[in-house]
Amino acid sequence: MSYFENFLKANQAYVDLHGTDHLPIKPKTHVAIITCMDARLHVAPALGLALGDAHILRNAGGRVTDDVIRSLVISEQQLGTSEIVVLHHTDCGAQTFTNEEFAQQLQQDLKVDVSDYDFLPFTDIEDSVREDMALLRNSPLIPESITISGAVYDVDTGRVTEVK
Amino acid sequence: MSYFENFLKANQAYVDLHGTDHLPIKPKTHVAIITCMDARLHVAPALGLALGDAHILRNAGGRVTDDVIRSLVISEQQLGTSEIVVLHHTDCGAQTFTNEEFAQQLQQDLKVDVSDYDFLPFTDIEDSVREDMALLRNSPLIPESITISGAVYDVDTGRVTEVK
Fold first, then answer.
1. Is CATH 2.60.40.10 the classification given to domain B24-163?
2. Which of B13, B42, B76, B87 is the most exposed, fewest CB within 10 Å of its CB?
3. What is the pTM for the complete model shown?
4. How many of the other CB atoms lie within 10 Å of CB of A111?
5. Domains of chain A, residue spans
6. CB B78, CB A96: distance < 8 Å
């Protein structure tokens, strides 16, 4: 059983409403948002984004990784963005484990040794936002001219609060 | 000037409509979707997702990287997902450059040597979906029991078409 078939059915209704205008490849607001994969966060309605407005990058935790830097460099140098928003959220899955515990679990369940992996868990959500903003600020691949903001999304209320 | 302030204003209206129900941290459909950061793709409406339905991972191209594997392992082993959808799209920014050209540009504009980086560009979109599905299928961290599908999103029509 695959849920993918349901997505294809739902997409038929979306296509009927979509129209066929060609939007530009470069984001209209010049913003790239890095946030978590969490299912309770729908970034576009939460921030008032229309189609074509902003790049949205998502991984476990909304953490700044090499892959996020790769994506941001493409976003900025190829596609004209000049502003980054780091958006973490309350009740995050990345707050539910430690690397050590998780490595033990994966050794047991998958028979794979990941004892040298960092799965980027965190405890304090504002600290994690500040840490990731600092990683961006200190990257030689992110020019100083890029504006960087940070915020937390509350999954229960939908509210976004700035982190300074 | 920062666009972030506009997002905060738009978010106030979203909060008024959001309600305060607590949704479970585990995605209801047990699906994780890996797709591109492109601004013209709003994943939730395109696939009929409600809040809480599915994990959404996004990077430049929707490529399967170490960071995506990290996120998927957390998604599956901590948060109960058992199905992955790889969703690339037409007119992708990852089709607009080669590593060599991009490295030259970054050397010139940022004075950073990234000649050994792979920015994961691609030419054929169906090939890139199949390549990333194969990376997932061959990862020791993705169990064989996980269902994997692939598809392409058309940014002009909103249509999702399966890739076999």
1. no
2. B13
3. 0.97
4. 8
5. 24-163
6. yes
